[in-house]
């Protein structure tokens, strides 16, 4: 299974509610105002959310969220297959396909039951409100016909395109920020990259090694980049000349992370990774 990145690209944006943006309502038993944006990106038109969105909002590692889902499925396979569905998505940064889960309202509720803290409670309520808001919207859509249905479809398409445009702009800003960091040399070494990502260098070396970015040849202490990552423009090698104690020179090859690679890593490595002490 491919490594689970944490990009900001939503795997299927939920349409916005079809009502005046200034209106609000009380969701089903939640006693919480819900406006037309409340379920945007949280719950899709199939009344499902997904493991990537949950990991992002609850500030969890996506691989850990998927592990918890697998444990729930194993605990009750018959119930699990009804509420957790395996799915994939394509990462906008590197074009690779990765695994995730789609969850029903019951599956979501069971998964987040053990999540604690004030922020966790806030997101629990927001997700449940989003499920209720989307359900109400789908009921209204079911009674529309003719011109009303066409108007609703146009509003939905416009809302989706605007949300996608905002996400693309956010990703573009991320890439530009990383490009500014490395524009002097075109790339930075792994230690510098770790500082930019808020990690300990050893943590980043370990992550890159475990996820198929870098490796060492037998009996060699030099890290090298895997060729596929170099071909994708995520890594590059630079030769440097080192002066030995006896005055002789030695040419060494150093793997470095490009601007594109740094941007991808910022999405792949969760913010809960080991931070600089």
Question: How many separate structural domains?
Answer: 2
Radius of gyration: 23 Å
Task: Tell me roughly what share of residues is in helical segments.
Answer: 40-55%
* Major sheet: arrangement of strands: 3-5-4
Poorly predicted parts: 1-38
**Biggest sheet details:** 3 strands, antiparallel
Q: Which whole number gives the mean pLDDT?
A: 76
Strand content: 15-25%
Shape: elongated
Distance between the termini: 32 Å
Q: How many helix segments?
A: 10
Structural class: alpha+beta
H/E series, N to C?
A: EEEHHHEEHHHEHHEEHEEH
Report the strand count. Answer: 10
GO molecular function, one term: DNA binding
Organism: Paenirhodobacter ferrireducens
Domain Antirepressor protein C-terminal: 166-269
Pfam families: ANT (PF03374), Phage_pRha (PF09669)
How is the secondary structure organized here?
Layout: E1 25-26, E2 33-34, E3 49-50, H1 51-57, H2 62-75, H3 77-83, E4 84-90, E5 97-103, H4 105-112, H5 118-142, H6 147-182, E6 187-189, H7 190-197, H8 201-210, E7 214-216, E8 223-225, H9 227-231, E9 235-243, E10 249-258, H10 259-268
Antiparallel strand pairs: 1-2, 3-5, 4-5, 6-10, 7-8, 9-10
Primary descriptors:
DNA binding, 277 residues, single chain, 47% helix, 2 domains, three-stranded antiparallel beta sheet, elongated, 10 strands, alpha+beta, Phage_regulatory_Rha
């Amino acid at each position: 299974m491919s490594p689970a990145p944490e990009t900001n690209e939503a795997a299927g944006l939920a349409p916005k509610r079809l009502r005046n943006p200034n209106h609000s309502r009380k969701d089903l038993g939640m006693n919480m105002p819900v406006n037309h944006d409340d379920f945007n990106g949280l719950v899709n038109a199939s009344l499902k959310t997904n493991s990537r969105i949950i990991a992002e909002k609850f500030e969890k590692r996506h691989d850990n969220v998927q592990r918890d889902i697998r444990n729930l499925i194993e605990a009750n396979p018959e119930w699990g297959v009804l509420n957790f569905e395996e799915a994939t998505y394509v990462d906008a940064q590197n074009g690779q396909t990765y695994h995730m889960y789609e969850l029903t309202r019951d599956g979501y509720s069971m998964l987040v039951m053990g999540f604690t803290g004030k922020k966790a409670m806030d997101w629990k309520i927001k997700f449940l409100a989003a499920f209720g808001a989307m359900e109400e919207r789908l009921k209204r859509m079911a009674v529309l016909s003719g011109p009303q249905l066409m108007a609703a479809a146009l509003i939905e398409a416009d809302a989706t395109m605007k949300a996608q445009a905002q996400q693309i702009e956010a990703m573009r800003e991320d890439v530009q920020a990383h490009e500014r960091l490395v524009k002097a040399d075109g790339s930075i070494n792994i230690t510098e990259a770790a500082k930019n990502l808020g990690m300990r260098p050893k943590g980043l070396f370990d992550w890159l090694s475990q996820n198929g970015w870098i490796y060492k040849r037998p009996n060699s202490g030099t890290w090298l980049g895997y060729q596929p990552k170099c071909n994708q423009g995520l890594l590059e090698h630079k030769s440097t000349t080192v002066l030995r104690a006896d005055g002789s020179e030695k040419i060494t090859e150093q793997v470095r992370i490009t601007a594109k690679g740094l941007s991808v890593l910022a999405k792949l490595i969760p913010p809960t990774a080991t931070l600089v002490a």
